[in-house]
Amino acid sequence: MGFKHAFGAPWETATPRITVRCLIAGGSSPRNGSRGHIPLFAAHPYDSVFRGRIVGMGENSLDEVVRPEREIARLQAWQVREIAAYSGSRDDAADVASEVALALAISENAARIKIGLARDLVTRLPETLGALSRGDIDLYKASKVSEPTAVLADDMAREVDAAVADRLAGRDPSSIRRMVNRAVQKVEPEGAAARAALS
């Protein structure tokens, strides 16, 4: 699978998932220790993407990495709403967990966690759900708002939700959790102190 070019001879190097074809200036080869090889393009099923993003390193390459992540988050928000709606339409929580587990091919425990998070986002943390819907955070980051606010009454959880929602984007999960913990302590200082004493 060689190719000819005025600059010199071709060579190929393979990784388990991608073959990169390079052009060797002056006909030299990296196999014999020569330097000066110039990457030309990537041979890959997604060659057009790799040519523009990996080899060429176009200025929008990171935007293209982030864009699918935002779309995934929007789909997660859609699924959250559907799970919460389905759960709300059924009387038996055990049956709901079993059915969701079967539908998604996950364990019942994982299904219960998913259902609990969905209900929490829809009923107690609407601003966080909005951030998920916009693609500002993913579902795992949303869970870092849900977990620390689980000890709060609904009205206090909504207060924390409103306080942190505009500051979620661009933070990693640990940073989100620390921020939410501080907000929980602020809205319920006595309860936070009592929980700290028990821990």
Task: Write a brief caption for the model.
The chain is mostly helical and 199 residues long. The chain is built from 9 helices and 3 strands; from the N terminus they run E-E-E-H-H-H-H-H-H-H-H-H.
Radius of gyration: 25 Å
Task: Tell me the span between the first and last alpha carbons.
Answer: 65 Å
Strand content: 5-15%
**Shape by Cα distribution:** globular
Topology, number of strands? 3
Percent range of helical residues: 55-70%
N to C succession of SSEs: EEEHHHHHHHHH
Quick one: biggest sheet? 3 strands, antiparallel
Mean pLDDT: 79
For the biggest β-sheet, the strand order reads 1-2-3
Summing up helix and strand content along with how strands pair, one would put the structural category as mainly alpha
Q: Counting H and I runs of at least 4 residues, what is the number of helices?
A: 9
Catalogue the unreliable spans.
1-57
Describe the structure.
This protein is mainly alpha-helical. It is built from 9 helices and 3 strands. It has a 3-stranded antiparallel sheet. Helix 2 (61-88) packs across helix 4. The longest helix is centred in the middle third of the chain and has 28 residues, at 61-88. It starts with 9 loop residues before the first strand and ends with a helix. Mean pLDDT is 79; it is low at 1-57.
Topology:
Elements: E1 10-14, E2 19-24, E3 37-43, H1 47-55, H2 61-88, H3 93-104, H4 108-123, H5 126-134, H6 139-149, H7 154-164, H8 173-187, H9 189-198
Antiparallel strand pairs: 1-2, 2-3
Helix pairs in contact: 2-4, 2-5, 3-4, 6-8, 7-8, 8-9
